[in-house]
Amino acid sequence: MSSRKKAPPDEDLSTRARIRDAAVACFGERGFGVTVRAIADRAGVSPGLVIHHFGSKAKLREACDEHVRRVVYETKKESVSRPSADGMARSLQEIDRYSGLLAYLFRSMQTGGDLGRHLYEAMVDDVQSYLELGVREGTVRPSRDPAKRARWLAANGFGSLLVLATMYQDQENPDFGRVLRDWQEQYVLPALEVYTEGLLVDRTMLDGYLLYVSDPPAER
C-alpha cells in the first residue's frame, strides 16, 4: 500500500486548476509544442504531478479547451441574457484579463487539425446556445436559421481578432493584450451599431435572397 497521503479535495482541485491555468498560458505563449516540464515549471509542480492529474499532455489540452470554452460562454451568456451599461463598462475595463484566452484560441486556430476544428465547432455550438437563451429572455431577435447565424457570428468574431493578431506576427509572440485593446478601439462601436441598430435601411437584399433560395433558377 502506498504511503502517499491523498490531498484534501480543495487542495487537490486548486492544484489541478493551477496546472490547467499554467498550461493555458504556456500553450498561448509558446504553442502546443511546449513541454510538460515547462508547464509544470510554470505551475510550480513536478512533471509527474501534471500527468497524475491529467493523464497525458493531450488530456491536459482537452481540459484547457473546456476551460476556455466555459469562460467565454459564461461571459457571453451574461452579456446577452442580462445586458447592462455597467456590465459593458466593466468588460471594457477588464479586457486585458482575457488576453491569455485569446492567445490560446489563436494558437488553436493557427495549429488547426482535428483538435483545432473540434474547439471551433464546440464554440459555434456555444454561440448558438447563448443566443437561444437571449431569444427566450427577449434580449435577442429570433433568426430564420439560428445555427447559421451562430456560425457567422463566431467566424466574424474570430476573424476580426485573428486579423489583428496576424498583424503582429513580426514578433515571435504577439502581444495579445495589445490585440484586444486595438480590437476594442477599432471594432466595438461599429459592431454594437450593427448588432443593435442594423445596417441596411430596407429589406430589398434580404427579400431578394429569400426569394432566390425559395425558388432558385434551374441549372443550365
Description:
This protein has 220 residues and is mostly helical. Helix content is 75%, strand content 0%. The longest helix is centred in the N-terminal third of the chain and has 25 residues, at 57-81.
List the helices and strands and how they pair.
Blueprint: H1 9-30, H2 36-43, H3 47-54, H4 57-81, H5 85-93, H6 99-111, H7 113-137, H8 146-166, H9 176-197, H10 204-214
What are the defining features of this structure?
220 residues, mainly alpha, disordered N terminus, HTH-type_TetR-like_transc_reg
State the gist of this model:
It comes from Nocardiopsis terrae. The protein is an all-alpha fold and 220 residues long.
Describe the global form: elongated
Tally of DSSP helical segments: 10
Helix content estimate: over 70%
Rg over C-alpha atoms, rounded to the nearest angstrom: 21 Å
How much is the average pLDDT? 87
Following the backbone from N to C, one meets helices and strands in this order, namely HHHHHHHHHH
DNA-binding region: 35-54
Keywords: DNA-binding
Protein name: AcrR family transcriptional regulator
InterPro entries: Homeodomain-like_sf, HTH-type_TetR-like_transc_reg, HTH_TetR, Tet_transcr_reg_TetR-rel_C_sf, TetR_C_25
